[in-house]
Amino acid sequence: MSTARGYREYPQRYRYEAAVCDGCGKWHFPPRLICDACKSETFTPRAMRRTGTILTHTVVHAAASAFADQAPYAVAIVEMDDGPRVTMQVVDWRTGELKSGQRVKLEFRRISEAGPAGTITYGYKAVPMSLLA
Amino acid sequence: MRDVAIVGAAITKFGELWQQSLRALAVEASLAALKDAGVDHVDALYVGAMSGGLLVGQEHLGALLADALGQSHIAATRVEGACASGGLALRQGFLAVASGAAEVVLVTGVEKMTDVDGVVATDVLATAADQEWEAMHGVTFPGLYAMMARAHMQRFGTSARALASVAAKNHAHGIKNPQAQFALRLTADDVLSSAMVADPLHALECAPISDGAAALVLVPATKAMQLSKRLVVHIAASAQAGDTMMLAGRASLSELAGVARAGALAYQQAGKGPTDIAVCEVHDCFTIAEIMATEALGFFEPGQAAAAVEAGVTSLGGRLPINTSGGLKARGHPVGATGVAQAVEIVTQLRGEAGARQVAGARVGMTQNMGGTGATAVVHILEVR
Ligand SMILES: [Zn+2]
User: Fold this and answer.
1) pLDDT tens for each residue of B12-46
2) How far apart are CA B3 and CA B271, in angstroms?
């Protein structure tokens, strides 16, 4: 990923910053420029709580090229406790923890190896909560 | 809007065609379709292609094809909607004729995917997903459909074996299609014992990487008889709808709402319903996609399609044969060509020229093509009257 693109996405990838609609209160992550619920164009940035629940998941065996060193790896759609549904990797899971309904907490991790711009990408990954207890 | 007819249809062999370039494939299909129609000029052409730029380093495919056909003066437009590019090109051609903007339109779908290796092709296909918020986390295209498959399994109890039987069925059909990439008999056990690509989807549940092209010639129905000697196949409906770009943004992960919307619009346009369809080509990029598409199109209640596949309802000889061509799975999936190839198959069926895979007496058929995880959905109903 290019350095400029990485910079643009810092607030979301590092601080879980959502856009909360000033019109209807819906939380958007990633942020939107117009609300898909009420069409408002003004939002207030707010950091999401870092907890959520797995809705569905997969274990990717045939990896995308930037993730070849991590295969096989788990990916899930997580419903955050503040509402947004977000695609992310699941790491540090133990047998039985990769399932729908599993509570997870987002942690800051390395996402992928250095790309063409020479930057290593960091961001959020989900970790099953039971492991953190 | 004018009634639009298809008077020419052609498809190249699909597969790993190392001898043929993108240009050669597109020209072969286009010339064959023009010859099939018996027309010698076109007013406009639409090319459906997903990613000439990333796969062969070539964009501007409308002008490229028009020139290669010796018709560099005509209005030539390339249409892109990921794996729905071909279906969208057909719809644009339909709209051009229906509106009166053009009289004779060529619609060509093409993709040349095997000049790059499988890893690059996988990355290119992943560009149909949201790069910043999905692909960025390592989810591949099979990975997204795998998450849909798991959601469907959790909600309806759909079994891995039922999914595998979709692939087995489409391969059984593909054996009867000389243009198909694979002539390979597969059992559900073969599918389930193939390598896992993205759990719960196995390698033999995923459409292959393919080269190929397909083409159609469209004219106003009122002029079809004077322009061409071929049996007139009417486009009874051309409908398009959408859904969220990201899979995560969907209210339901086990339904294709965009496909359902496009299907409902198509039935309304044609004045028909699911029971009027005699043969249908759906976008089985993965086994779960065929299950979810046939539910979205109203052929089966949500959660019932898997049992229908296992019971042979969607096999040749069943009540509603689905993917008689072999589908994306066995015919092959050169992505931009797929939506056009589906219509070529239905035209072939409605003309009664499908040979060993003919659905007897078929007069109404449907095609369903989608891009990404269904963010672009296009449905056509074709009919002989
Ligand atoms: Zn709002």
Assistant:
1) 999 999 999 999 999 999 999 999 999 989 999 99
2) 14
The 8-class DSSP code of residue B15 comes to B
> What is the average pLDDT value for chain B, to the nearest integer?
97
Cβ contact B253–A63 (<8 Å): no
Contact call for residues B140 and A64 (beta carbons, < 8 A): yes
Q: What pLDDT is recorded for position B230?
A: 87
The answer to whether B247 contacts A87, with C-beta atoms less than 8 Å apart, is: yes
Residue of A1, A35, A61 to mutate, interface with B, max B Cβ within 10 Å: A61
Q: The sheet that has A17-21: what strands, in order across it?
A: A27-28, A17-21, A43-47
Backbone φ and ψ of B375, nearest 5°? -70, -30
Question: pLDDT: is B346 or B122 the higher one?
Answer: B346
Query: What percent of chain B clears pLDDT 70, i.e. is strictly above it?
Result: 100
Instruction: Provide DSSP, B274-320.
Output: GGG-SEEE---SBHHHHHHHHHHTTSS-TT-HHHHHHTTTTSTTSSS
Q: Is B206 a catalytic residue?
A: no
Would you tell me how many other CB atoms lie within 10 Å of the CB of residue B94? 23
**Residues less than 5 Å from ion ligand 1, measured at CB:** A 21, 23-24, 26, 35, 37-38, 40
Question: Which of the 8 DSSP states describes residue A24?
Answer: T
Report CA Rg, chain B.
19
Q: What are phi and psi of B93, to 5 degrees?
A: -65, -45
Q: How far apart, in whole angstroms, are the C-alpha atoms of residue B116 and residue B48?
A: 20
Position A2 scores a pLDDT of 73
Q: What is the ipTM, given to two decimal places?
A: 0.94
Mention the CATH class of domain B4-117+209-227: alpha beta
Contact between B243 and B272 under an 8 Å Cβ cutoff? The reply is: no
From A84, A22, A92, select the one nearest A53 (Cα to Cα): A84
Residue A22 — φ and ψ, nearest 5°?
-70, -20
Domain with CATH 3.40.47.10 in chain B: 4-117+209-227, 134-205+237-384
Q: Give the least confident one: A2-11, B37-46, B206-215.
A: A2-11
Helix and strand numbers (H, E) in chain B are: 14, 11
Distance CA A30, CA B375 (A): 17
CATH for B134-205+237-384?
3.40.47.10
